[in-house]
Amino acid sequence: MKFLDEYRDPALAQAIVADIHRRVTRPWVLMEICGGQTHTLMRYGIDDLLPKEVELVHGPGCPVCVTPLELVDKAVAIASRPEVIFVSYGDMLRVPGSSQDLFQVKAAGGDVRIAYSPMEALDLARRYPDHEVVFFAVGFETTAPANAMTVWQAEREGLKNFSILVSHVLVPPAIRLLLNSRQNRVQGFIAPGHVCAVMGYGEYEELAESYKMPFVVSGFEPLDLLEGIRMLVTQLEEGRAEVENQYARSVTRQGNELARVRMDEVFEVADRKWRGIGEIAQSGYRLRDYYRDYDAELKFGVSMTHADEAPDCIAAMILQGLKKPVDCTAFGSRCTPDQPLGAPMVSSEGACAAYYRYRRHTRTEAA
Fold this sequence. Notes:
By secondary structure, the chain is α/β, with parallel strands linked by helices.
C-alpha cells in the first residue's frame, strides 16, 4: 500500500538511525506512552537499531492494561445477569478479574458480545427492548467521543435499556504522576498521536514547561517513531524542553474541537483508579448527573466492588517504565496470552503481549 510504504521505507529509516547515532553524546531514557507505539517499536526492532545510549521504556498507554481489577469484576457481575447483553471490545474478554474473565462468563452461557463500535451496542438496545444492553466503555481520550455520542443518542431516543460501564482514563495526569515519582528515570516522552488527535497537545505544553521535559507527538509507523525519537534526542542534546508535533498529518494543537464539545457535555473529569498504579486524582471521566440513568455501575448496584491484584504480576512496574516484561519471572511461563496473570499480556496494545510476540526468547538467548 502506497501510503504505508512511505512510512516504512528502509533507506529512510537507515538514514534517520544514522543521524540519531551522530547526535547522541550521552545516555537518555525515553518513554513511549501509547501501547500501539510499543508494538511498532518491538515489531520492527527499532530499539535494537538505536545507539546504546538511547533506552526506550514503556508507559501506561494501554487502556485495557490500566482498567482496574475491580472494574473487570463489575463487568463480570453485570454480564452474568440473565437479562443483560454485555458488549465489549474483544481485548477486554480475556482480561483477568479476581476470579474469572468475560470470556468465561460467555462460555458459561452469558450473552457477551464483541463490537467494534459502541453504536453497535446501541443498535442492540433498539432491537432487544426486553434486554438490558451494557457497553464496556474502555479507553483513553481517543475513544471517549464515540462513547459520549452513543450516550447522547440514547438519551435523545429515550432508550432506557442502554447503559455504559465507564472506564475512561486521561493521559496527562498519569504523566504528571510519573514525573512526580522519586523513581522516575524518563527524560523525554513520545506523546500518543491518537489521543492528541482528539485533545490537541496544549496540556503537554504545560507539562513541558512545569517539568522542563521535552515531548514529541508521534504517529505509529516506523518512520514516525524514528523521527519522533530523533526530535526528542535533538531537544535533549540542545537542552530544550518543548512540545513538537511529528504527527502533523493527523494532529493539531487544538485537536478535534467538535468531538471535545460532545465529550464535555456527556462526561466530567473525576478521580480514577488505574490497574496496578492506584487512584490518580482527576485522571478519568464519569457520566455527568444528567446522564446518570446510563451509568451501569449505578443501574446494577456494583459501585462498591473491591479486589486485589495477583501478587506475582509486575504490571504496575512495567506501566511506569521501571521494569520491562522480560524482567518478570512469570513472563512466557506462568503468564502467557492464553493464561495471563495481568492485562498487559492480553491486550493488543499491551507491552507484555508485544514482548511475547516479538521478543519472548530474549531471556533464553541472553542466558
